[in-house]
Specification:
314 residues; alpha+beta; Immunoglobulin-like; 2 domains; six-stranded mixed sheet; five-stranded mixed sheet; disordered N terminus
Length: 314
């Protein structure tokens, strides 16, 4: 049975048919690592990458052998290699690939910008840990499930000059082509022309910033930042949640219309004006009806007085 122990590493193991078990050991440099390999007369070797050859591990004050295990008290850059244990016959038993752990700083769940303004540095992901990574950005509709399909933000060069090439823009339908040929009065640029991706390095802390200029209501969405280890850059099919070499954070962008608060107020004012008009009309009608009643009563009184005067003459 093969065991790998360390204070705070994350382990992901996989078995390749015909090969020994390869275990990825993600660790923090400040944490010691204990690699264990069961067997008799165990020897340890290392290589810098998959294409290089194994060579004997140099034992010093930071590396110790004991009971078939290899102990690394302190991890330096040159220690982030592939280690393997062999039996006395020279057969490889197990491989361990040491890679530095990294993660993204917790992003805000949602940020808000005003309609027509810029998002500046509100949509941002910051790398924690010393590991060479590539940032990729995606978006998905607000309210969709976290595991739902994401749309790559493509056609935008980042600070490294990398263009996301997963997207394929479909050919427009004939009707859509005609619409595009028609003159339009809007000056709003397409989404891809209003965004940019910047890489920021502040005292060794690397961040990727997605900037949206002239934010529109349709830009409201969930934006996902993925930090992918350089080892996985050429891979296109991967699950960031289960991958050892990928971490992600997401932020909901809310676009606020500055006039949005006016509409409820305008509605209330309109209701008050209509109510006042109804009351005014009702009062006018009531006064008119009262005036008619007074006129009718006065006419009846004149008839009675004239009848009395005729009787007295007789």
């Amino acid at each position: 049975m093969l065991l790998v122990f360390s204070l705070l590493p994350m382990l992901v193991s996989c078995v390749v048919e015909g090969d020994p078990i390869l275990t990825f050991v993600r660790l923090n440099r400040a944490d010691p690592v204990q690699l264990e390999c069961e067997g008799e007369k165990i020897s340890w070797k290392q290589k810098f990458n998959e294409s290089s050859q194994y060579e004997d591990v140099e034992i010093d004050e930071m590396k110790e052998l004991g009971d078939g295990g290899l102990s690394l008290k302190k991890i330096d850059e040159q220690d982030l290699v592939i280690y393997a244990c062999f039996d006395d016959a020279g057969t490889k038993i197990k491989e361990f690939e040491l890679t530095e752990s990294f993660r993204l700083k917790k992003s805000a769940k949602s940020v808000q910008v005003e309609l027509g303004s810029s998002s500046t540095d509100k949509i941002k992901c910051t790398l924690l840990g010393e590991h060479e990574v590539l940032f990729r950005w995606f978006k998905r509709p607000e309210g969709s499930e976290p595991g739902s399909k994401m749309e790559p933000i493509c056609g935008v060069k980042d600070a490294d000059g990398v263009v996301e090439d997963e997207c394929v823009t479909p050919e427009p339908e004939p009707e859509e082509s005609k619409k595009k040929e028609e003159p339009t009065t809007t000056t709003i640029k397409p989404f891809v022309d209003r965004i940019s991706i910047d890489r920021e390095n502040v005292k060794g802390v690397i961040s990727s910033i997605l900037k949206i200029e002239n934010a529109q209501m349709e830009d409201r969405a969930v934006y996902i930042c993925q930090a992918i280890a350089i080892e996985l850059v050429n891979e296109r099919e991967y699950d960031c949640e289960d991958s050892t070499y990928c971490v992600s954070e997401e932020t909901l962008l809310r676009v606020k219309d500055p006039l949005a608060a006016i509409w409820p107020f305008a509605g209330i004012v309109a209701e008050v004006v209509i109510l006042c008009l109804v009351i005014f009309i009702c009062e006018r009608r009531k006064k008119a009806e009262d005036q008619d009643d007074d006129d009718d009563q006065g006419y009846k009184g004149n008839n009675v007085s004239s009848n009395n005067s005729l009787r007295q003459r007789k």
